[in-house]
Amino acid sequence: MAHIESRKHAAAQQPRLNQTAALTLLALALPGVASAQQSPTATLPEVKVTATKDESFKADTVSSPKFTQPLVDTPQTITVIKKEILQEQKATSLVEALRNTPGITLLLGEGGNSNTKDNIFMRGFDTSGSVFIDGVRDLGNFTRDTFNIEQIEISKGPVGADNGRGAPSGYINLASKVPFADNAVSGSIGYSDADNVRLTADLNREISETAAFRLNVMKQEGGVAGRDELESNRWGIAPSLAFGLNTPTRTTLSYLHVEQDNVPDGGVSTVGLKGFYNASLSAAGIGARKVDTENFYGSDDDFEDVTADMFTVKVEHDLAPGTTIRNTSRWGKVRHELLLTAPGNPAFNATSNPNGINAATDPATWTVPRSRHSKWQENELLTNQTNLTTAFDTGPLTHALTTGIEFIHERQLTKTLTGAGTMAPANLYHPNSNDAVTAYALTPNGARADGETMTIGAYLFDTVKLGEQWQFTGGVRVDRYNTEAKNVVLSTATSHPTLPVGTLVPQNVDADDTLVSWKLGALYKPTANSSIYAAFANSKQPPGGSNFSLSSTATNINNPNMDPQEAETVELGTKWEVLDNRLALTAAIYQSRNKNDLTQTDPVTGDITQWGEKTVRGIELGVVGAITPAWQVSAGLAKMKTEVKEGSDAQQGNALQWSPELTFTAWTSYRFPFGLTIGGGARYVDSMLRSSNNAAATTVVPEIDDYWVYDAMAAYEVSKNVSIQLNIYNLSDEKYVASMNNNGYRYIPGAPRSALLSANFQF
């Protein structure tokens, strides 16, 4: 397979037009070109020699300028999921894309809430608040679409030096598509057996030798595989304009607008799952069968509306060979509104008998209560980042330095809604979404949580090369932040005994501090295309850092008087590029420690102290790239042992929740010379605890079972511009739990066997 000729500063490229098509397009697009071709003295415009693109799964670098070395020479576990994998799998959301890296699981939500977001657990910790787009912290908590994504970069381990405050487990960065100096059109039309239709298009147009325009659009509408009455409806548009391509000064303007109008999923009852426990049924010796995973326990008036806007300006200037300054400014806003009905703790219509055993014997009479959850939340962000990269020598040492400063303003406004109404309990096995809703009049009641954070951050990283085999990396970041929570609460007889119940009362709390994060690495290169490294890094999460919420309660972990939670990790690893650098092999062992996540009051002095410690030890293996030019593979395995080293008596010594000991993922495809591509993959997730508390016999579903899922695809090139693709998901129709909420009453079932037929085009 031929490769596109590299061009300085060009972004990842789409397929180029061949010479004949280029001439035809130029003749149609440029006035006078066609007549000039007929003139014996006319000079034709320059024609680019074109070829097919490199479609390897393997990435050599990440998009952030904070990383100056190729991945093989970066002392850190980083997984890159390129758009080629997303295309083969037809992965349309971030959650679907993350199935290509091990060590990640999902959470449905807290007991009184429901998950409507990318609620991601990685290496034992919640990573939902550490998602970035082009190096800027992302907004909100809705399902993220991949239609405008070039690649997804997962950096694992506490790396606060990269972005400031963050989770102990790492972060996820989504690299957006940008214009490039060429002409290309691609897209896809797909239809699934869930009656879901999806259309995408990607148009790149070269305006001049130094300017280009790119437009990505997406429309999706229809149902959800294996789930009654749910809907996944969204559309998006992402135009971008670039000036100064292939010149010392380059400017990119981009805009993203996404809207969603969904029927959300409150989950199904966990009755009948392995490990399900109910005291009445247990006492009577009665078992309960599983509910139908297609059941919808919601209401016809459930809704989820999302509106997201993001505008970005990026300017790059080459000050000298090897020295570039970049400035990125972004404004964004996301509004998320939700009304969702979810099943709760089931009731078995118990009646007393002479033996005192309470249990019904007719499953047809069993019911499950339904709770109504509402949400109104708006996130807004304004940021400006300046970065400088340069290379220089000091005696025998070669330096690759990157430094910068960031100004970030983040705000989250959450309004409390009343009037969600009530619904009668649903029949456990035959719920009815048409059941009446009583007292439904959804309106704000005046209570709200209004949190904002101002941050000024500065960082400096340097990679020092000593000869051809040794490299040393050091980095530090300092963040000065101020968080203000301007909340309004409703008074109660207990909280404000001198005020009438229901009075709106302001509650203002603020916190400010300075965070210092760092990372160190030493790397040895046995060969030019391999490395062995050791790394040490930390990250911090200050009070209110994950949810913009501060508490005036003295013992709350988000009280401004508390110290930040801090994580440290040590990692030893190796990376090798083999088979003419087509295939990357990685291996790493690590240990992470997170502390200061609990508080307690001294029973004698009354002093409040922070404590609590959790550890994660593990090994991670990876392989990605091309075994042959036609055979691509991406696979990873993660094995980890998690433990609550210091915690409550009920947690001490237990594993962390939502953290399976073993996870595995693999995807491979082979392209035959006659235009047929076949591919397939497998995913394994080990069993995991729902709660870190000691699982007594009376615990509802204390553990989630392990599972294997197998997928397959086949694509055939009808012509050089059009291909037909069939994806089949969950070939064995495995029944498994995709995610569960904290109290164990409801879960999202994994999608059953389903199919998606697509037509892809590219010019």
Question: Topology, please?
Answer:
Elements lengths: L18 H11 L3 H6 L39 E5 H7 L4 H4 L6 E3 L13 E3 L2 E2 L4 E3 L2 E2 L11 E8 L3 H4 L6 E7 L7 E9 L4 E12 L2 E11 L12 E10 L5 E14 L5 E2 L9 H6 L18 E18 L2 E21 L23 E2 L1 E25 L2 E22 L3 E2 L2 E2 L9 E2 L4 E24 L3 E21 L13 E21 L5 E12 L23 E14 L4 E19 L6 E21 L2 E16 L15 E10 L4 E10 L2 E2 L13 E2 L2 E11 L4 E8 L7 E4 L5 E4 L4 E9 L1
Compose a concise summary of this entry.
With 763 residues, this protein is mainly β. Helix content is 5%, strand content 52%.
Describe this protein's structure.
With 763 residues, the protein is mainly beta. It has one domain (71-762): TonB-dependent receptor, beta-barrel domain (Maltoporin, Chain A). The longest helix has 11 residues, at 19-29.
Number of separate domains: 1
Summing up helix and strand content along with how strands pair, one would put the structural category as mainly beta
CATH superfamily: TonB-dependent receptor, beta-barrel domain
Question: Which second-level CATH architecture applies?
Answer: Beta Barrel
CATH topology annotation:
Maltoporin, Chain A
The gyration radius over C-alpha positions equals 28 Å
Helical proportion, percent range: under 10%
- CATH top level assignment: Mainly Beta
Please outline the major beta sheet.
22 strands, antiparallel, barrel
Secondary structure tally, helices: 6
- Ends: how far apart? 17 Å
Number of strands: 39
Q: For the residues shown, what is the average pLDDT?
A: 89
Tell me what portion of residues adopts beta-strand conformation: over 45%
Shape annotation: globular
- Taking pLDDT < 50 over at least 5 consecutive residues as the criterion, the unreliable ranges are 1-52, 352-358
